[in-house]
Amino acid sequence: MLNRMLTQAFDQYVFTRVDHILNLAGTTDAGYSKTAAEVSAALDRLLVLARALKAEQPAMTGLVMDFEALTALESGQAAEIAYKQGLRDSRHIRRQFIACLQQQG
Asked: Which branch of life, at top level (predicted)?
């Protein structure tokens, strides 16, 4: 029970932290901002096209919206996975750094 509560709390922390990092990156990282703007522009063009073809392809607008939602979810999950791996890696790197310092001293 405690393990499950700790896991949920950790997962919520990671979700919140990743969201904060990505929001910050949107304002401070030029490459990320450029990519985000290009993705948004491409989605806008797809929606315009889907609306123009609504009579011939009525499912297209829903498909575009589903695709946008799923790619956003995938991107968020990928960021969370990378963040968690970074935490695991940092413990390993710290141990190696301490071992190296002990060998030097």
From this structure: Bacteria
CB 53 within 8 A of CB 60: yes
Is the separation of the CB atoms in 91 and 25 below 8 Å? Answer: no
Q: What is the pTM of this model?
A: 0.73
Query: CB 18: neighbour CB atoms within 10 A?
Result: 19
Residue 42 DSSP one-character state? H
Domain count of the chain?
Answer: 1
Please report, in angstroms and rounded to a whole number, the separation of the first and last CA atoms in the chain.
Answer: 44
pLDDT at 2: 83
Domain that holds residue 47: 2-104
Which residue is listed with tokens 């990378």? 82
- Amino acid letter at 75? S
DSSP alpha helices (H): ranges in the chain?
Answer: 2-28, 30-52, 60-104
Q: pLDDT, tens digit, for every residue of 81-104?
A: 999 999 999 998 988 989 888 888
Q: How far, in Å, CA of 105 to CA of 97, rounded?
A: 12
